[in-house]
Amino acid sequence: MYPFVDWIWNPISGRCLHNCSYCYVKRIAKRFKYEQANPHIVEAELRANLGHGNTIFVCSGCDLFARDIPDLWIKTVIGYAHSFKNNYLFQTKNPERFTSPLFELSAARDILCTTLETNYFIPEVMNLSPPPELRSIAMGKMADAGFQIMITVEPIIDFHLREFLFFIKRVKPIQVNIGADSGHNGLPEPPAEKIRELISRLKTFTRVVEKNNLRRIIA
Ligand code: SF4
Q1: Which of 95, 177, 200, 215 has its CA 20 to 30 A from that of 68?
Q2: CA dist 143 → 52, 113, 158, 171, 194 (Å)
């Protein structure tokens, strides 16, 4: 998903509470006709040698910071990760939990990321995910605390340009990744011109990475 990541590490697995309508993990489960288990610790992953000098995406297949994940699990995962000298990417749609002092995230080693598909909250798409505005506010707090912040606008959904830019600018992102729905989920997508305008405005204050799947809309 991100070219700078060396590998992914999934010490927590199972169904994600947020239940986004476009979730690729749910899509894979449906395609291969298996039932997603409840969230659980994958014990073997907590014995894995994570090496050193790597950039590792933690829990790419679920949401480590969803509100049904016990504090102890999160503390265990972060503690184990930090026992190896790597950099870590933590991505969640519930970044308010990043701000908890319970979790000893490291501004020196951890990159924090959230998804902002749009500025609007669309319940039928986002289901139990916190609204984009709350994600933006929480990430702003982490930026103020000195963390490197990355934003992923994927799958992009139609937006209000000025408000969306405000949500993104507030978090002082080092990078914004933009991609389109690759799962035919019938999302309300913005027109090509609007996306081009967004990208052009974003480039005035951050690095923008356009995912290949965006070409379907702005080719
Ligand atoms: S937050 Fe991520 S893993 Fe969870 S349902 Fe949404 S897309 Fe899937």
Answers
A1: 177
A2: 26, 11, 26, 6, 27
Confidence of residue 75 (pLDDT cuts 50, 70, 90): very high
Residue 184, token pair as written in the block: 């035919």
pTM of the predicted protein model: 0.97
| Those residues with Cβ within 8 angstroms of residue 103's Cβ, 6 or more apart along the chain or in another chain | 71, 74, 75, 78, 97
* pLDDT score, position 219: 84
* Ligand 1 pocket member 12 (CB < 6 A): no
Contact 156, 195 (CB under 8 A): yes
What pLDDT sits at residue 1? 78
Report strand pairing: 7-9 vs 110-115: unpaired
Verify whether ligand 1 is closer than 6 Å to residue 16 (CB atom): yes
Domains, the chain, with CATH or none = 7-218 (3.20.20)
Q: Whose CA is nearest to atom 8 of ligand 1?
A: 23
CB proximity list for 162: less than 8 A, separation 6 or greater: none
Backbone region of residue 170 per phi and psi (left: phi > 0; alpha: psi in -120 to 50; beta: other values): alpha
